[in-house]
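Working notes for the structural subgroup meeting. M.R. asked for a predicted model of this chain before we commit to crystallization trials. I am recording the input and output together here so anyone reviewing the notebook later can reproduce the run.

Input as submitted:
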Amino acid sequence: MTARSAGQSWALDIALAQGGFDALHPEGKGTLEQLGHDHADFDKVFAMVRAGAMLPKAWAVVAGQAEERAAHHERLGYRRTASDLYLRAAVMYGRAQYSIFDSADGRKAKFRERCDFCVARLGELRGNTVRRVELDFEGGKIFGLLHLPAHPVSGAPAVILGPGMDMIKEDYIFAAERYYTSRGVVALSVEGPGQGETRARGLTVTLDNYERALETYAGYLAGLPEVDENRIGLFGISMSGYWALRAAAAPGTRLRAVAAFEAVSGDFETIFERAQPSFKNNYLYMAGYTDEAAFDRDLKDKMPLGDLVGGIECPVLLGIGEFDELTPVENALETYEKIRAPKEMRVYEDEFHPLGGTAAEVFAFGAEWLTRGLDGEFDAPGRDERFFVHRDGRTTEGSADPRWWLGAAPAGLATVREGLLEGI
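Returned structure, recorded in token form:
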């Protein structure tokens, strides 16, 4: 646990008691609904929470209620109703296990066991279109869920669904069906090193092993008869947006299009030193560190993307909230400027890190953009599309800069742009 996390836990408790989940992630409920959480379940959970220590209990109790209801409907033969409830239970058990940062804690293992059981039941009830994937990786195992269209496909596009640092593979079951398999696209929701079941089995995240794990998943997809090996893309949010950009920049990658929303970029001081202490605490657990100074030296100081993104060759879509609390929008725009591949940028007015107010739009648009990108529509050299998406429904085309900047830019961003102009 970091020094800030230990010393400021009282602040988290007050925020939760007074503001509920919005105190942590403004409008984040909209994003969680895209991750399979029912709004009624969500409200029941946070009605029970007045301190951080109460989170695992609340998630587990309401998950148990959904699982019990699912079993009732399954006994009576209502397969779709039962599978939907098993999904609700699975994602809540997933939240419960995430709230415990100790792989040796037996409660964490029990919550994972219930989550796995619910996923197995919904997979069977949905005709085995949701399948568990377990792959060898650098002496350990990585885990995913394969999502297949209801009707057989061959040579279809495929998309890897990358979770943020506090997400697990089960979080994408709802989105995979709604936005991908229903349109004939194969999806693979994954856990990289340091996440979920992969972390529980002992595999921690390093500076660069996550992108190798993504490439391992892409190789798995390429070997499936349902998949066109030349049409594999990646949808990432938050930290998986960061890992997606690293993976896309790797020489010889199989990725042919990448959509990254809320990608963490910049100097990593914001997310690890100024944002909620829980983010750094979580990443220390993911990386297997207990020494914060060693973590800073070995990882934090080396994580900024810098000019790495200049090596990306496939089409890239970036999207971020104007007031993302983990990555200042000017940092995201600096990263965008350094990308030389065909690219597109969208900044969402007055949105924070979860992009909760536009979550349904973002998930739908990201899926459709990837499908078109994998079909080669965005391959033209020099493609550079920028949009500022206003809260009132308007969209400014040609620039992603906030309107209130009045044509100016923060110093760092201005310097990057001036440097690029000089290099022309």
